[in-house]
Amino acid sequence: MATSAKTLATLEFDKILARLARHTSFSAGRALALALLPSTDYAEVVDRQRITAEARRLLEMQPNLTLGGAHDVRPQAQKAALAGVLEPSELLDIQSTLSLSVSLRNTIHRLAIQGLPLLTTLAEGLADLSPLAAEISRSINPRSEVTDAASPMLSELRRETRLAHDRLTTRLQRILSSQ
């Protein structure tokens, strides 16, 4: 049975969600927090409380654990699915989010023996995309520039461009010095 809009208004549930949303680190988490609804299903309530208790325990064990660096990459995923070209800055957002996901997954697995069965199960659902994150890091530098390592052809083209530039500069210097 769903909770009625009148009940939610009486409880000022929107204010509760707004308070919760202030504790999120990025837009996707904020959207999820604002979309939460109370449950009238006892089993679901118990599951949510257990997950919350484990999350609190995780934060007690790892007080510096953060989702800082995570980005809402759903727009980039949609763009890529439609064969769109991603900008280097978009790829860096993906790389940062993937690296954080891998780190979070590894942290939870490392602490699993301390009694985090539900979070461990959730963490197992996080794919290990560290090879993709590494490939992006290799191909895009922190200034959002595509590196020569992005592809052999790009490396060769840039090498040829540098050589042509150097030859042109040398010729221009010869012309200027001969006058």
Structural commentary:
68% of the residues lie in helices and 0% in strands. It contains nine helices and no strands. The protein has helices at residues 5-10, 13-21, 27-35, 42-61, 74-81, 88-111, 117-124, 130-139, 152-178. It is elongated and about 90 Å long. The chain starts with a helix and ends with a helix. The mean pLDDT is 92.
Distance between the termini: 91 Å
- Unreliable spans: none
Kindly name the structural category. Answer: mainly alpha
Coarse shape: elongated
Question: SSE order, as H and E?
Answer: HHHHHHHHH
Number of helices: 9
Q: Biggest β-sheet: count, sense, barrel?
A: none
**What's the Cα radius of gyration?**
25 Å
Q: Which whole number gives the mean pLDDT? A: 92
Number of strands: 0
Helix content: 55-70%
> How large a portion of the residues is in β-strands, by DSSP E?
under 5%
InterPro entries: DNA_mismatch_repair_MutS_sf
Write the layout of secondary structure elements.
Blueprint: H1 5-10, H2 13-21, H3 27-35, H4 42-61, H5 74-81, H6 88-111, H7 117-124, H8 130-139, H9 152-178
Helix pairs in contact: 2-3, 6-7, 6-8
InterPro entries: DNA_mismatch_repair_MutS_sf
